[in-house]
Every structure is written in structure tokens, then in C-alpha cells.
Design goal:
Radius of gyration: 20 Å
Largest sheet: 3 strands, mixed
Strand order of the largest sheet: 2-1-6
Structural class: alpha+beta
Order of helices and strands: HHEEHEEEHHE
Number of helices: 5
Number of strands: 6
Strand content: 15-25%
Distance between the termini: 38 Å
Oligomer: single chain
Helix content: 10-25%
Length: 159
């Protein structure tokens, strides 16, 4: 089995779905800010945030906002919440509860590294590359911790 041929990425997919105008309200160009530092805060890489006009084409969008835009665009009842995939074959998905779905155009497998969907399209398996990541967020950081907010704005700090 060969790797899937994926020719489009995030923003292009959104555009093809006709959701660009709606998602535009949620894009955070200042989220393109990234700092890579060591444990002593020695900076190895720093990319400042942007505005829409200075963007490098990789604005951030918060996961909740993206989910809301995508789900709002779908017909009611099309998402199968709480259903776990047990098998996918040509034109058919079988769920662990025995339900079988047919007649769809697309499958979206948002089920992470141990995806049940991925093996239906490629034999490439995820592998550990010797690094781990940690995601942390500080709610209302600008008000509660302006010193931290000033470091990276709403972008990413990678220690």
C-alpha cells in the first residue's frame, strides 16, 4: 500500500469547502510567533507574530473555533459521536457497536496517532522519534501574567 496522496493542506481545504470567509474571523496571525529556547531561556530561534498582511501563510486557529466552523457547516446528524470504528472497507465503515454506514464521499478520522482510519489508506505507522511535546495554556494570560504574555504573545514557546 502506498502513502495517501494528499495534495492540499489546511487553508486550501477550508477554501475548497467554501468556509474561508467564516474561518477568517477566527484566524490568529499573531499565533505564528514561535520561540525555541533551552531550560535557561537561551533563545535558539525566534519568529515574531504577524498581521494578516505580513503573514507567512501559517496563521493559527484555536481548535475549538475550527471545530465549531466545521461542525456548523455539516448537516445535522452527519457526525457519529461516540462511535468507534472497527473496520473500513471499500465504501463502508463498520463501528464497534455493529452499525454499518455506506454512501459517503469522505471520511474524517480525527482519532489521533492510534487511528483506526489511517491503516485503511496507508501502511505507514506512527513511530516514536525520540522527542515528546507538552502543551500548556495559561487562561487569561494577558491579565494574569502580562510578563509571560509579552514573551511570546499568543504564539508558541518551545523549551
Amino acid at each position: 500500500m502506498s502513502p495517501p496522496k494528499i495534495a492540499i493542506v489546511g487553508l486550501e481545504a477550508i477554501e475548497r469547502c467554501g468556509l474561508s470567509d467564516r474561518l477568517k474571523e477566527e484566524l490568529r496571525y499573531d499565533g505564528e510567533s514561535v520561540w525555541v529556547v533551552d531550560h535557561n531561556f537561551k533563545t535558539y530561534m525566534k519568529m515574531d507574530g504577524h498581521t494578516e498582511s505580513s503573514s507567512n501563510g501559517r496563521p493559527e486557529v484555536d481548535r475549538g473555533a475550527l471545530s465549531a466552523v466545521l461542525l456548523d457547516a455539516l448537516p445535522d446528524g452527519i457526525v457519529r459521536w461516540g462511535h468507534r470504528v472497527s473496520h473500513i472497507s471499500a465504501g463502508e465503515i463498520t463501528f464497534e457497536n455493529g452499525t454499518v454506514e455506506k454512501g459517503f464521499d469522505h471520511i474524517v478520522g480525527a482519532d489521533g496517532a492510534c487511528s483506526k482510519v489511517r491503516p485503511s489508506f496507508t501502511d505507514i505507522k506512527p513511530s516514536y522519534v525520540g522527542q515528546c511535546g507538552l502543551l500548556g495554556a495559561i487562561p487569561n494570560v494577558k491579565a494574569g501574567h502580562p510578563d509571560i504574555a509579552a514573551i511570546v504573545n499568543p504564539g508558541s514557546l518551545c523549551p
